[in-house]
Specification:
Helix content is 42%, strand content 14%. The chain is α/β, with parallel strands linked by helices. The protein has one domain (13-228): Undecaprenyl pyrophosphate synthetase (3-Layer(aba) Sandwich), CATH 3.40.1180.10. The longest helix is centred in the middle third of the chain and has 24 residues, at 72-95. The radius of gyration is 19 Å and the shape is globular. The mean pLDDT is 94.
Length: 244
């Protein structure tokens, strides 16, 4: 496969489903949480390389609303790792001009995690570099329901007939950012698992067998090369795209 061409458009917003941590550990006869620990290095690599390549926004699917169904000890360790990451990584993100945001229902998290999320967002809010979004206790269906509620709260006298896609969009998570151009899923599965299902209506999908703890800068570039080879029509014909 050819190398990434920086003279051609690169995705401005990338979403990643970081899958395969448990399987990575299992292959090495290690506890699953070791895979989650190892995953942090991949996050660092992808964040840094995305910023270097000029990606404007990166959204990482860290913990879905369905992940609470996992074994209790694994969930506990995941929450511990999440808190540790907030404590250890945020200052470096801030030094590198990264703006951090967490999307999802925070109410299920411990007060300590909620406080660190708030502190991190306040600290990095005015940064102008990469917009790094962590989807935690997030689900696309939840996002749409919350947007509908927010729309109704903002328009208490409105009739339901006034509820349109354009009306809902401003109330969705990350409404201030461009919708994802590229969605990457690691670990070999080929589904989106309730990740930004509204926002990814026209995203290009890229699936790789690479387990997330092994995912690196080259893997990211391979996904972006695949993106550059796609024709994005957004409902138009190829002939129409050619004349734009």
């Amino acid at each position: 496969m050819s190398s990434l061409d920086l003279t051609r458009p690169i995705p401005q917003h990338i979403g990643i489903i970081m899958d395969g941590n448990g399987r990575w550990a299992k292959k090495r006869f290690l506890p699953r949480y070791i895979g989650h620990q190892k995953a942090r290095s991949s996050v660092r690599k992808v964040v840094a390389h995305s910023a270097k390549l000029g990606v404007k926004a990166l959204t990482l699917y860290a913990f879905s609303t369905e992940n609470w169904k996992r074994p209790a000890d694994e969930v506990t360790k995941l929450m511990s790792l999440f808190l540790d990451a907030l404590q250890r990584e945020v200052s470096k993100l801030h030094e590198n001009n990264v703006r951090l945001r967490v999307i999802g229902d925070r109410s299920a998290f411990s007060l300590a995690i909620q406080e660190h999320i708030n502190d991190a967002e306040v600290l990095t809010n005015n940064n102008t570099g990469l917009a790094l979004n962590i989807a935690a206790n997030y689900g696309g269906r939840w996002d749409i329901v919350e947007a509908c509620k927010a729309w109704k709260d903002a328009h208490p006298e409105a009739d339901i007939s006034e509820l349109t896609p354009d009306a809902i969009s401003p109330f969705l998570a990350l409404a201030d950012l461009p919708e994802p151009d590229l969605m990457i899923r690691t670990g070999g599965e080929q589904r989106i698992s309730n990740f930004m299902i509204w926002q990814m209506a026209y995203a290009e999908f890229y699936f790789t067998d690479r387990l997330w703890p092994d995912f690196n800068e080259k893997d990211l570039e391979l996904a972006m090369v695949s993106y550059q080879q796609r024709e994005r029509r957004f409902g138009r014909t190829s002939e129409q795209v050619a004349t734009c």
